[in-house]
Amino acid sequence: SIQRGFQVNFEETNWDDIGGLDMVKKKLKQAVEWPLKYRNTFKKLGLRPPRGILLYGPPGCSKTTLVKVIASVSGATFLSINGAQLYSPYVGDSEKIIRSIFQRARASSPSVLFLDEIDAIVGKRSLGERGGTGNGDSVQERVLSMLLNEMDGVETATSILIMGATNRPDMLDAALLRPGRFDRLIYVPPPDFKSRKQVLKIHTSNMPLNEDVDLDFIAKQTEMYTGADIKNLCRESAMIALREMKTTSNVNMSDFLKALKIVKASLTADILTYY
Ligand code: ATP
């Protein structure tokens, strides 16, 4: 992706690029598309579209991809920032960056402003992780105040949707979750059997598959795999097929079985206790 001052151009994506997650997709469509489509009805009913939507759940389960799809299908400008960019010693004043990214979001609205790994941008204030004492003097604490200010300052009339993603919702400062800030929280779960089969279909759609490949079986064998793990599994299977230079140039079931021994599930029962 080309990045020009936090504005990101990315490949067009759509809902079908994400396997499973039907409920999540439905909730997002309601929260994002409905307020735009039925603007007048919303006004008449006194409904306020959400200011911020927070996606939370284990890593690798398509939170980032969902945000890109929203920006893609709504035709909005997509601005994105994460903790590493914000606190990079090369970019300087973190508070200024927050201010300027909101300025850009306003100037280029309708826009989606994505705060990726938001726990790394603004963790719990009391932790004073970046050398602070919890008295509002650390960089992270000042960034949090700036962010809250900017979020509160977004006029309801302007089409700026703020989206956040986190693997650790428990690490977020509660102030972020007050009404008018991140007022919709959506859990993005790991894929169940049916979803895993869809993810397998998506990531093998451009592969010549031998007819012995049994996606049902693979979906059953991949409990605790994330979508990202399944994507890796498919790539690994193709690499195995390539390495073995078989005369038939397609990927067969034995390639997948070998790949299953190499690409393991990244989820554990421990990780899932966070959600
Ligand atoms: P992280 O928290 O690590 O950033 P994430 O939840 O934002 O993870 P993504 O970056 O969106 O996850 O997904 C990682 C990769 O896995 C993407 O390239 C995506 O194509 C693939 N992937 C994950 N879930 C799915 C899914 N349900 N369907 C299709 N592809 C998926």
TrEMBL record:
Organism: Funneliformis caledonium
InterPro entries named in the record: AAA+_ATPase, AAA_ATPase_domain, AAA_lid_3, ATPase_AAA_core, ATPase_AAA_CS, P-loop_NTPase
Signal peptide: none
Gene Ontology biological-process annotations: autophagosome maturation; mitotic spindle disassembly; retrograde protein transport, ER to cytosol
UniProt keyword list: ATP-binding, Nucleotide-binding
CDD domains: RecA-like_CDC48_r2-like (cd19511)
SMART domains from the UniProt entry: AAA
Source taxon at top rank: Eukaryota
Any Pfam family the entry gives: AAA_lid_3
Designated name of the protein: 15732_t:CDS:1
Family according to the record: Belongs to the AAA ATPase family.
AAA+ ATPase domain segment(s): 49-192
Molecular functions (GO terms): ATP binding; ATP hydrolysis activity; polyubiquitin modification-dependent protein binding
Record's GO cellular component terms: cytosol; nucleus; VCP-NPL4-UFD1 AAA ATPase complex
Coiled coil: none
